[in-house]
Amino acid sequence: MKKFALHWQILVALVLGVLYGLFFSEHTHYVTWLGDLFIRALKMVIIPLILSSIISGVTGIGNLENLGRLGFKTMFYYIATSTLAILVGLFFVNLFAPGIGADLGFQQTVEGLDAANRSFGDTLLNIIPSNIFESFAKADMLSIIFFAIFFGFFITQVESKYTTFLSDMFNAVFEVMMKITLFIIKFTPLGIFGIVAGTIGEQAGESGALLEIGGRLGMYSFTVLISLVFHSVITLPLILKVFGKADPLKHLKAMTTPLLTAFSTSSSNATLPLTMEAVEHNSGVSNKVTSFTLPLGATINMDGTALYECIAAIFIAQAYGMDLTIFQQFIVVVTALLASIGAAGIPMAGLVMITVILSAIGLPLEGVGLILAVDRPLDMCRTTVNVWSDSCGAAIIAKTEGEELKI
After folding, report:
1. Which of 133, 147, 209, 300 is the most exposed place for a label (fewest CB within 10 A)?
2. Residue 46 host element (H or E)
3. How far apart are the C-alpha atoms of 274 and 253, rounded to whole Å?
4. Is the pLDDT of residue 393 over 70?
5. What is the Cα–Cα distance from 50 to 56, expressed in whole angstroms?
6. Distance CA 129, CA 142 (A)
């Protein structure tokens, strides 16, 4: 009997979660613990998986020349696609002008706005950890990635006996973490069911907040969605086809499970283990490229988030009756790129980082209240685009390294 594929299990869990949340909104506490447990299990493996995978990847790359080449390709791809995503968002938000005539009648507060007050210079400075164990405890991904790359490179610079020992050790740790991760992945449908049921039930309990949203807020949502679709269906597949010499549809099929999980959890970090497994085993990207590019991408490559931040900022400006000049829109583009790099791969991180852009163009932070009601479903969509871009990047970089892909 043919096994019921995991992505179909996840899809069924999504549907059942929506139905349960709609019809049993007052009883979602019976199932939400499934989602909480699943997310906790994924968070448990994220740091050791990222640490071991990057160190293993860097030691596998070898010398400084190879590391520099792969690092340059990776960063160039991430910056280029994020910039393209922002420009797509800029085009559509100016085309549809969703904020013209928007109602400013509701304003709410967002937890974590203080986190967005750090300057970009501070963000760069804090990449170098003063205490790596504190970074582990706080899950400061940029610091952990910096330390892992640094540590992995210097493993290759010591005596060969130490290099062999440490390389084998971190390779072994990585293999163990992948085994644990694959075990956790088996329970993805149950986790997704709990997460979706809880989210839908909560929205249903708020007097049908999502159902009552219309007018300009609905146009704003449409603008974000059409921009995300354009970037994920046209821009990224075109880049994958031209530079990666790969079939975008085959790659999409290979990425079904992590993309559905990204949509459900709204977390590129939580989806990272599944993305790594799918890119390596389904698309045929080597462990060397996968273990270096994907953990980095889950932290700094946020195409969907960058696109959303651009549209949200200009929508809020339009809603306040502020006509942004070309220069101010350029500031939005640059700031959205920098803010997306600093955004954590967790649910609603982009909503926090939007305050950086609002501050840069002189808009009140209370404007964030305009977009809160529809942020959760849009967050699910933009996270899916983030993960899709990461996977395309890994395939393209692998191809430029001379690898033969399965796609």
Report:
1. 133
2. helix 32-61
3. 14
4. yes
5. 10
6. 9
**Which of these ranges, 204-208, 252-256, 351-355, 367-371, has the smallest mean pLDDT?**
204-208
279 close to 290: Cβ distance less than 8 angstroms = yes
- The overall pTM is greater than 0.70: yes
| Tally of helices (H runs) and strands (E runs) in the chain | 19, 0
HSE toward the beta carbon, residue 113, CA cutoff 13 A: 14
Phi, psi of 106 (to 5 degrees): -130, 135
Structure tokens at 22: 């709609």
Q: Domains in the chain, start-ordered, CATH in brackets?
A: 6-400 (1.10.3860.10)
Query: Helix, strand or coil for residue 371?
Result: coil
For the record, the structure tokens of 153 come out as: 């490179």
For residue range 191-238, what is the model confidence (pLDDT) as tens digits? Answer: 888 888 887 787 665 544 444 445 677 889 999 999 999 999 999 999
Q: What is the pLDDT of residue 2?
A: 58
104's tokens: 């400013």
Query: Exposure pattern of 265-279 as b/e (b: 16+ CB <10 Å)?
Result: bbbbbbbbbbbbbbb
What secondary structure letter does DSSP report for 112?
Answer: T
